[in-house]
């Protein structure tokens, strides 16, 4: 018997494929005319099926955030994979094992001793493809722009090492998540572009190669006014979108492809609340969206019978649902099902081993038309 | 070759079995003299091995928070399992499937329509064992004390149904987590005891059975001054403890059995930070401990070379580590390993499929002496 939204055990993760396809189409239409490749960050989707859909219009390059993802996507046929978290020497043998399968698993550093360790490992016979990471203002990893301290030294150590390809420079404008207008995001996008293009030019001026100039977050990919000098973008959450992205204006309210389905398990009229069977594990404790959407809690209820019905608190397997006005308990009886828009899709999805796929265009949006697996862990 | 803390891939979850055993011994020594059974809430550990250790001195009854846990522990030989999240009718067939394997999987409700649905399902031939949930002040699930609205009606529907056992009453004083002194926790523990014992007496006064009177959280199990009338306690996090428990005084600093091991992946002296490869997924975004330990961030670094070295921010796979004083980068070189005390162990552990077990008494505390699996998902 085919499952539907009425028969799946709760909590579970529901993906609307029609919205996913629209989201992919939108980013494709942004990047294609600018002749920029998409290297989607599949840390969000962690799914071979979704990776294939996201890259269908491009050359198949992808980004991952763990070696477990690298192995999984390699097994799924992807051949150009950037492992986007700063490498440490103890992980090089695992990188080599994947590269020996014919996969160009590329790595990242912003550190001279690590560059030397890569050169040493390469001298022993292993080959590597390495990006240098640039901090374009997010204050996370990378050589801070505009100083770019040590950039050329790191580039030279890598380029001079036998069996090492200096693949290029990469950055991630994570601070775009703290802007809430297209103009604000566009300003961050320009910082991101300027930082990574300047780094590339600095390497080239020193006689070093820099074939790939890689930037990107979902907000900057959506709102950048220029990609000049950038060769690829690495947005991740664009495939699903979430309340956080809606709050900052990266997407519209109809662009959220992912939801958690839960059952109503208790009515508490004396405190105007109800409980659902999706709590801290099913939704995550990420509250990013509250920055620009204070009532988002741990997620808004989709198609709710009252305004701003949200999960306002979570314990491990209980979600507390509340609104400003009296709850219409008759419309949300015990055992009825609700869908929650995730606050931050990347973190919420990580609790699940699969997507239950519906399609609101090709099907009725309630029948499960496919199941996609996911790779979690490290 | 035997793995050690120096060879495991990071991030990973490390469990010190010696501390776990001490934690189990401590709760055993609290409950045994009071003739109270331990029904540990295995939503924290989600491990058959740990479940066996926790119940070794008792009769083997346990609590779980998902049907996936119920199936897993049933397969592991446990025969008296309380599924502690309010049941909905659509889950009854899954409960029955487990019960038919010879497992007394007990369920919970606080709702008359659900009690009637259970009675209806039982009339069709399935048997059930049901607890009525009481809200002793936490404001989560349960009939609120002291009103206990509908308690006897629910009890009577269940007791009168063929094939249904009214197993008793249960409560969880989750508000004990917001006290930070033994006296404060003891006060909550007394509320918890009074609420559930009063509910039991109310049922008995109405001529209904109430064999099991179940209470418990780790703080109240540790600090209750009386268990009179309570027949079992259901603490969960006591097996591991965490910064949250240390902050409220449920345990001491030496009682934390669980840590996340991560690698230092970047140095950022211009902002007095370093990065590790454990972020929002490896640590969780739970910040419960900050209520009484404002500097805990997403976790303190164990055995740190400077005071209050903590993970102060997280993105998906990056943890930002900082302290009030200058970081001694020479003592934390790139590639070196740190262990992070989790803020809230139950939520952190849920990202991992296994525990790497060390033993700081029977072994050197660095050699992996065992691996325990975990059951995640639903």
Please give a structural write-up.
The structure is a homodimer of 378-residue chains. The first copy, chain A, has two domains: 35-238, TIM Barrel, CATH 3.20.20.10; 252-373, Lyase, Ornithine Decarboxylase, Chain A, domain 1 (Beta Barrel). Chain A contains eleven helices and 18 strands. Chain A has helices at residues 17-31, 48-55, 67-75, 92-99, 112-123, 151-160, 182-205, 218-223, 243-248, 280-283, 345-349; strands at 12-16, 37-38, 62-64, 80-83, 104-109, 128-135, 143-144, 164-171, 212-215, 232-233, 258-268, 273-276, 299-301, 310-314, 319-322, 337-342, 354-358, 370-373. In chain A, strands 1, 11, 12, 13, 14, 15, 16, 17 and 18 form a nine-stranded mixed sheet that branches. In chain A, strand 5 (104-109), helix 5 and strand 6 (128-135) form a beta-alpha-beta unit. In chain A, helix 5 packs parallel to helix 6 (151-160). At the A-B interface, helix 5, strand 11 and helix 10 of A face helix 5, strand 11 and helix 10 of B.
SSE layout:
The structure is a homodimer of 378-residue chains.
Chain A lengths: L11 E5 H15 L5 E2 L9 H8 L6 E3 L2 H9 L4 E4 L8 H8 L4 E6 L2 H12 L4 E8 L7 E2 L6 H10 L3 E8 L10 H24 L6 E4 L2 H6 L8 E2 L9 H6 L9 E11 L4 E4 L3 H4 L15 E3 L8 E5 L4 E4 L14 E6 L2 H5 L4 E5 L11 E4 L5
Parallel strand pairs in A: 1-17, 2-10, 3-4, 4-5, 5-6, 6-7, 6-8, 8-9, 9-10
Antiparallel strand pairs in A: 1-11, 11-12, 11-16, 12-15, 13-16, 14-15, 17-18
Q: Helix/strand-derived class of chain A?
A: alpha/beta
CATH superfamily of the largest domain in chain A: Alanine racemase
Beta fraction of the residues of chain A? 15-25%
Largest sheet composition of chain A: 9 strands, mixed
Oligomer: homodimer
Give the number of DSSP strands of chain A.
18
Shape of chain A: elongated
Biggest interface, chains and residue tallies: A-B, 60 and 60 residues
Radius of gyration of chain A: 22 Å
């Amino acid at each position: 018997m085919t499952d539907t939204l009425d028969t799946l055990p709760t909590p579970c993760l529901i993906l609307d494929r029609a919205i996913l396809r629209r989201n992919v189409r939108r980013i494709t239409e942004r990047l294609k005319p600018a002749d920029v490749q998409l290297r989607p960050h599949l840390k969000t989707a962690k799914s071979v099926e979704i990776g294939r859909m996201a890259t269908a219009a491009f050359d198949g390059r992808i980004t991952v955030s763990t070696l477990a993802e690298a192995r999984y996507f390699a097994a799924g046929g992807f051949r150009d994979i950037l492992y986007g978290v700063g490498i440490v020497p103890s992980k090089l043998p695992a990188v080599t094992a994947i590269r020996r399968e014919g996969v160009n698993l590329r790595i990242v550093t912003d550190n001279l001793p690590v560059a030397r360790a890569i050169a040493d490992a390469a001298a022993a016979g292993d080959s590597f493809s390495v990006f240098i990471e640039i901090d374009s203002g997010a204050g996370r990893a990378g050589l801070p722009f505009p100083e770019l301290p040590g950039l050329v030294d790191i580039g030279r150590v890598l380029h001079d090492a036998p069996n090492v390809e200096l693949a290029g420079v990469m950055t991630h404008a994570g601070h775009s998540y703290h802007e809430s207008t297209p103009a604000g995001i566009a300003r961050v996008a320009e910082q991101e572009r300027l930082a990574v293009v300047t780094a590339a030019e600095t390497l080239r001026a020193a006689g070093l190669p820099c074939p790939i100039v890689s930037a990107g977050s979902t907000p900057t990919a959506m709102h950048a006014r220029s990609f000049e000098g950038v060769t690829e973008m690495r947005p991740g959450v664009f495939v699903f979108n979430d309340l956080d992205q809606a709050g900052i204006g990266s997407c519209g309210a109809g662009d959220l492809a992912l939801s958690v389905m839960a059952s109503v398990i208790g009515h508490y009229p004396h405190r105007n609340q109800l409980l659902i069977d999706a709590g801290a594990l099913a939704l995550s404790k990420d509250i990013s969206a509250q920055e620009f959407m204070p009532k988002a809690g741990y997620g808004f209820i989709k198609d709710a019978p009252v305004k701003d019905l949200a999960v306002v608190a979570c314990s491990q397997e209980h979600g507390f649902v509340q609104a400003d006005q009296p709850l219409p308990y008759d419309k949300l009886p015990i055992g009825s099902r609700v869908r929650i828009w995730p606050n931050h899709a990347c973190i919420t999805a990580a609790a699940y081993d699969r997507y239950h796929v519906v399609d609101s265009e090709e099907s009725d949006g309630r029948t499960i038309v496919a199941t996609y697996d996911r790779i979690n862990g490290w």
